[in-house]
Design a protein that fits this description.
Elements: H1 3-14, H2 27-38, H3 46-50, E1 54-56, E2 63-74, E3 80-90, E4 94-96, H4 98-109, E5 112-113, H5 115-130, E6 134-143, H6 144-147, E7 158-165, H7 166-169, H8 171-181
Parallel strand pairs: 2-5
Antiparallel strand pairs: 1-4, 2-3, 3-6, 6-7
Helix pairs in contact: 1-2, 4-5
């Protein structure tokens, strides 16, 4: 039994359950595997995720990938937050392979997080990777730490944004991005 499995065994016992009960016998092993999977972003680097999928492109027009689903764990309660991420950048000779944008989102989301930091990490990673003229990231998420416990507000949604380069400096560029991601 791994040390993480032992810890899950202790947690289950601490809440008053019998870990030898039929339905719980393998739970520490499954919980440890699930927790490792949910936090697999710690085992990844930006170079691993990009895997050289940066391409020359003769365009300066906005690239948007919207509605990227994300799943993360809040670092304060270890409860999930679930939502979607919208990413845009203004290329200056280089673009990312399409799936790489989603993989960057996943790499940072699959770590213990706060939404504010996650938003900035995604923007900074894209900026670092291809040095675009600007990067914009918006995340909208529901936090189970606010829904299942505490204030128990079921319909609350947190929105965060990070705007770099021209998205920060030019209101028209920022507005174009926000209008495009808000279309049905």
């Amino acid at each position: 039994m791994s040390s993480m499995e032992n810890l899950f065994t202790q947690i289950i016992q601490e809440i008053g359950e019998d870990v030898t009960r039929e339905g719980l016998v393998d739970t520490p092993k499954r919980a440890a595997a699930a927790f490792r999977f949910l936090n697999r972003g710690y085992q990844q680097t930006l170079d691993d995720v990009l895997n050289n999928a940066i391409f020359e492109a003769d365009t300066e027009d906005m690239v948007i990938v919207k509605d990227i689903e994300l799943y993360s764990l809040c670092e304060h309660h270890l409860l999930p937050f679930i939502g979607k991420c919208h990413v845009a950048y203004l290329p200056t000779g280089k673009v990312l392979g399409l799936s790489k944008v989603a993989r960057i989102v996943d790499m940072y989301a699959r770590r213990l997080q706060i939404q504010e930091r996650l938003t900035k990490q995604i923007a900074d990673a894209i900026q670092q990777s291809i040095q675009p003229a600007g990067v914009a990231v918006v995340i909208e998420a529901k936090h189970l730490c606010m829904m299942m416990r505490g204030v128990e507000k079921q319909n609350s949604v947190m929105q965060t944004s990070s705007m770099l380069g021209l998205f920060r400096k030019q209101i028209s560029t920022r507005s174009e991005f926000l209008n495009l991601i808000n279309r049905a």
